[in-house]
């Protein structure tokens, strides 16, 4: 940069401050900006949370115990020794939190319903006071012009079902889930028009049933893990049927899945084709069987004697048509190249030096949010996709002036959203985006140590403070465009 230029730039900035404007605020007012790449008209901007991560009030109004209450209270399971007993106290502060969404200008909010609030025992008599909370929340959202997107299962299974039938090890849990879905559909679809069934089977199943990292902390052999995943897929299908039978006409339903993300290592036609085939194989155990009505030959051959047992009737139930597919997209699972060896594609080892955000698992690869929906739409002929989660943790230090300048989160979002815009511009049918997360919350095994929010939460005082990324996201929403 020449001296002359930097002096000119300085003069410009000084001029702005004389007008009482900071440079970023002034820039935000000059829309449309030449570098602004627009999203399609009507693109839905939202934020996301989940019940156990924010609600607290675990013993109030007849809520039953969930497997995450049990797990988080088991010594050694959560890194900072915390639990979700109080979390963000959202159960009592939901009005303030809806105000935070409104301040962003977001038009949609993805939250989850706590199954054990509605059915403390997993099945049987519903708890009316549990439903009352979601009645209040929905009314508050609608009064503020925010469209609710409800998730039925974001991991807080009623402990009673775990104790009685072994949770997802039994298809009794699939049936109980359908009854719960029917009840929600009958009582809430006058206001909730969009329902996600399951959140991230690709995480809670392996982490909870194979690796023992998440609730319920089991380490089952592969055959039982595959069977449990099949029961979750069955639960999804039964719930879709139950929602259609009990909900208002026009209620839309689909999964919210952390698709195993495959990215072509180098963008050639051969590698793209190989990546499509790999994506289908890696996702056969859940998204594939939902969308194709069968497990792929590759999946069944790989599982061998450990393959799930199923009937043709179950496959039909599992593959009920969905109205949309939600994809939670954070990091690339694997980069792929074409290979002349069987099966024609090869996953490459991930270098240890691959850059990541403050969460080690969160590798930075903005192109993943371009490729994953593009490939999913192609291989399964999906007509409507939502990015049901995307976001990042960050250090989020409070500076002496009380502000949080989370430039790393802004960098991440700017680059990911630019790639998402690229997908929509090419006609990939992505219709909305839910940023994870509205506010810092109980991040599962990391407790309160990892912060993903647009708002910082002080878990002592429960004060919510917008980070700089909240201003960034507000600007994106206002312009329906991303400056790169
Ligand atoms: C997703 C989940 O896996 O990513 C969220 O659906 C979760 O519930 C988020 O909070 C961040 O994950 P983690 O493991 O870093 O807490």
Automatic annotation (TrEMBL):
Its EC number is 3.2.1.21. Residues 1-27 form the signal peptide. It catalyses: Hydrolysis of terminal, non-reducing beta-D-glucosyl residues with release of beta-D-glucose. It is an enzyme of class 3 (hydrolase). It comes from the Bacteria. One of its GO terms (molecular function) is beta-galactosidase activity. Keywords: Carbohydrate metabolism, Cellulose degradation, Glycosidase, Hydrolase, Polysaccharide degradation, Signal. PANTHER family: GLYCOSYL HYDROLASE, LP05116P. Belongs to the glycosyl hydrolase 1 family. This is Beta-glucosidase.
């Amino acid at each position: 940069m020449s001296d002359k230029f930097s002096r000119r730039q300085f003069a410009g900035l000084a001029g702005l401050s004389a007008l009482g404007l900071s440079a970023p605020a002034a820039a935000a007012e000059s829309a449309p900006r030449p570098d602004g790449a627009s999203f399609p008209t009507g693109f839905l901007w939202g934020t996301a949370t989940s019940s156990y991560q924010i609600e607290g009030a675990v013993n109030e109004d007849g809520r039953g115990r969930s497997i995450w209450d049990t797990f988080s209270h088991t010594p050694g399971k959560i890194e900072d020794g915390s639990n979700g007993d109080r979390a963000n106290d959202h159960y009592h502060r939901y009005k303030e939190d809806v105000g935070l969404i409104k301040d962003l200008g977001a038009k949609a909010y993805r939250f989850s319903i706590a199954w054990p609030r509605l059915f403390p025992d997993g099945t049987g008599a519903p708890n009316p006071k549990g439903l009352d909370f979601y009645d209040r929340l929905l009314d508050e959202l609608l009064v503020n012009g925010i469209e609710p997107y409800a998730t039925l299962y974001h991991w807080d299974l009623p402990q009673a079902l775990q104790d009685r039938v072994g949770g997802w090890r039994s298809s009794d849990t699939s049936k109980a889930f359908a009854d719960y879905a029917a009840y929600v559909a009958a009582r809430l679809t006058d206001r909730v028009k969009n329902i996600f069934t399951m959140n991230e089977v690709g995480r809670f199943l392996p982490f909870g049933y194979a690796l023992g990292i998440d609730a319920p902390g089991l380490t089952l052999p592969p055959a039982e893990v595959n069977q449990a995943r099949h029961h979750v897929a069955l639960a999804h299908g039964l719930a879709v049927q139950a929602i259609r039978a009990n909900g208002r006409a026009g209620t839309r339903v689909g999964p919210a899945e952390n698709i195993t993300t495959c990215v072509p290592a180098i963008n050639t036609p051969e590698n793209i084709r190989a990546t499509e085939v790999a994506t289908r194989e890696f996702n056969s155990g859940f998204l594939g069987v939902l969308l194709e009505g069968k497990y792929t030959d590759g999946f069944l051959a790989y599982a061998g004697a450990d393959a799930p047992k199923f009937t043709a009737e179950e496959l039909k139930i599992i593959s009920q048509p969905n109205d949309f597919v939600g994809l939670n997209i954070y990091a690339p699972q694997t980069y792929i190249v074409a290979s002349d060896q069987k099966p024609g594609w090869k996953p490459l080892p991930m270098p240890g030096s691959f850059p990541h955000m403050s969460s080690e698992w969160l590798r930075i690869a903005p192109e993943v949010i371009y490729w994953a929906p593009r490939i999913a739409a192609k291989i399964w002929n999906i007509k409507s996709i939502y990015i049901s989660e995307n976001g990042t943790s960050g250090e989020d230090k409070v500076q002496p002036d009380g502000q949080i300048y989370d430039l790393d989160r802004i960098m991440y979002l700017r680059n990911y959203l630019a790639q998402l815009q690229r997908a929509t511009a090419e006609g990939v049918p992505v219709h909305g985006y839910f940023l994870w997360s509205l506010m810092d919350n109980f991040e599962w095994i990391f407790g309160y140590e990892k912060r993903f929010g647009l708002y910082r939460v002080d878990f002592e005082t429960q004060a919510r403070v917008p980070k700089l990324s909240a201003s960034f996201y507000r600007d994106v929403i206002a312009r329906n465009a991303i400056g790169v």
